[in-house]
Amino acid sequence: MVELRQYLRGISSSCPRRHWLAMGIPLGLGLVGRGDAAEGANFALPGRRGWNRAKSVVVIFANGGQSQLDMWDPKPRAPVEVRGEFSAIATRVPGMAFGEHLPRLAAIADRFTILRSMSHEDLDHGSAAYLALTGFYHQRRSGNPPPSPNDLPTLGAVIRRVAHRNDLVAEAVHLNSPALVPREPAPGQFSGILGPANEPLSFDDVRDDRETEGEPSEPTVAGSLVAGLANREQLPNPRLRDRLSLKQQLDTLSTLRGDRRAAELKQRYLEAHEILASTRAREAFQLSLEPRSLREQYGHHRSGQALLLARRLIEAGLPFIQVVWNQSNRGQDHEPHWTDAYGWDTHNDIFDALRNRLLPRFDQGLATFLLDLEQRGLLDQTLVICMGEFGRAPRVALERSFAGTSPGRKHWPTVYSILLAGAGVAPGAVVGASDRIGAEPTTERYGPWDVSATILNALGINPRAHYLDPLGRPLPVSQGQPIEAIYTG
Questions:
Q1: I want to staple 467 with a disulfide (CB 3.0 to 4.6 A). Which of 23, 34, 233, 358 is the partner?
Q2: What's this model's pTM, rounded to 2 decimal places?
Q3: Separation between Cα atoms, residue 282 and residue 84, nearest integer Å
Q4: By percentage, how much of the chain surpasses pLDDT 70?
């Protein structure tokens, strides 16, 4: 068995080009349709709700799992040990209530849909993140397995493989990435069996360039990137091309040609060179080109600035952008005085963390992002999804095995909520419902597999298509169906 695993690792990094060519068809989508004689051929044709409505998709991944009970699906009539400390507030949509610390989003609730009956069966962060970001259960369910080159690809890698719509190096970009659980990367964020050529372009974090709340002051990754990528007089494009040519010659002499890590590094070098050679690419990542007032509206913190950068990438035409909010699912255990470190895994101290750290920034940043897209005429062509790997439990309790001194909520995948907006999504709607204490769905359940199918369908990619793995076995890009209810309300 060990030998088989080693063999699979080897072929995943060095399989012949013909295997990858077999994954595509010359129709621009790059995937092989499945079931042409049956339902596959007609599954995602123009005319299906949401089909090809999005030029870009932005996934805001709330790392750690947001509490639907304190945000999107409050239960004001439930016992206090269920409803928690927060009150419910009315939104702009009659009958739709949010937790009291989302006033800005409540004021623009007529711009998006809340889906309140998400549900699955994975109980832990690592494997649940894999499920959320690939649309498939990990073979090690309810655990924290490390990423593997034999994993199924993250959705951005699939889109990068098939989209071919952009000339800015990559069709998929991850910001504030990777999501950490709490210090190691969760699986499901990488190209896996699709290989390094399809790895989403990833930026570690997007920091603001001014000090706030006494927190560390560091330059933005985007600003540092552009400063580092600026064309220098002593390095004009011909010299850059000469350097790349020399590197390629040295690569042919390398003893690491079959090593996956070397292949990944080579791919990063090529992407960096392409950005260096493109003024348009460099400018897309340059936050300093934005007015200071708008940067302040997004919020002087990593996630707010990452959303602003996402908007710039939408304008540049990137099909898929993923923003991790925040990078560690519970960095507050180690840096309790640094708000940017806080994640959504609030086993203890949930109300303090939400009230004073997480929700003010989230409410400000996401509301500004949606309004900015709308005002620029981009929301109609951009599908925005905000989701975590699961929700939080309908019971407030102190957990002795976790840091913190006041009660919080455990993981809860049985029912939770996500936000969707743009690209034809019905504005001001609620889809699905949970029971009176937020413990179970009372309407049709939807899972991460359906979210992945919705994203693909929105980009005009057949969710029933498949690709071939390095052994020539067909693997579907999704096992779900587009959520049509979000378009009808």
A1: 23
A2: 0.84
A3: 46
A4: 74
